[in-house]
Amino acid sequence: MEISKKKPAFPINQGLRKYLRKYKREDSINLTYDDMKRWNDSTPVYDSNGKNTLWESVIYDRAIQDEILLGLREIYAQLKTDGDTDIISHLKVGQIDYCLFGNSHPFRVKIVNKINDHHDYFYIKKADASRVYGLELEHILSPNRIEYMVDGNTLVEAHIAGIPGDQFMEYNMEFPSFYPTGMAKEFVKFNERCFVMLLGDMRSYNYVVDVTPDFDKEQYRVRPIDFDQTAYEGRKNHYLPQYYKENNKIIDFCIELLTPETVEQYRYEERTLMKRRYKLAMPRLNRLLDSMLYQEISTPEKIASLAEDLNKYHGTQRFSKYRHMGRILKSHLSLMLGKPKPKKLPGKVNFKDK
């Protein structure tokens, strides 16, 4: 399936900036993304199997190292305790890694508690309007809460814990504790959430699986970690994880374990829960979508192509008149969630149609 290899970063417009201030997502921080790029040496980061992860552990000159390390501890305090710096006395920066691939070229910061050696991560990235829209939609409409803040051209994100999807498929699906039916159900729901929010490029390395042991079986939650392709791509199937070949191992047992009726039931359940959040958060969501109505976050060609696909899916012609992805997303959300009761729609997702 063709998907954009490199998506441009889109600036945060005035409307989105106003939204971020209103909902306390904007804050002043002591380091910028450009400050983080002042490293002068690096070494490759390898995983436990000796494979190059394409991350580089970076080192800063002594003249600025203390400034960088203190600034990162203060940012972590802002992210976790609303700026209470009393906590940073027992924290240290364990490692700073720079990602060599992807759109946002993030820095991953490891924060270590010196008392008990517990560690956590957060990320510093270039602020991109597409990503911010995706983070907010995930926070509002999904069962997951997202912590992040923006300052100018810098985006700070809390770590989203879980097993990367590709590693989960390679290793965890072979564990005796693996519960295939539970994972199949969750993947159908994840597939539905991505489509409703127009979150694209959910290949296996762009989401994680959060595993919770229960008294008789494991429970799973699939969580996206890459939001760069929010309302950017030009085909409906780009927003459905089931169509990415990297997810085939999961899709295969979804097809084996779930009947079309069961798939439809799980989709209905997820849209019902999303509809409740949609109704409760309507004022906030409308402010977010209004800031997106005239924001350039895609190309005219992709907008026209997606409009055609969604016209067919929803059995309408309304999308043909839209010239911005924001209007397409707002109308799509209304059709998917705005009705009193989600109903079966033309062109429903069929997991047997890969």
CATH topology of the largest domain: Phosphatidylinositol 3-kinase Catalytic Subunit, Chain A, Domain 5
Count of individual domains: 2
The assigned structural class equals alpha+beta
Task: Report the total helices.
Answer: 11
CATH architecture of the largest domain: Orthogonal Bundle
Explain this structure.
This protein is an alpha+beta fold and 354 residues long. The protein folds into 2 domains: 14-158, no CATH class; 163-337, Phosphatidylinositol 3-kinase Catalytic Subunit, Chain A, Domain 5 (Orthogonal Bundle). It contains 11 helices and 10 strands. The strands form 2 sheets. A 7-stranded antiparallel beta sheet has the order 1-2-3-4-5-7-6. It is globular, with a radius of gyration of 21 Å. The mean pLDDT is 92.
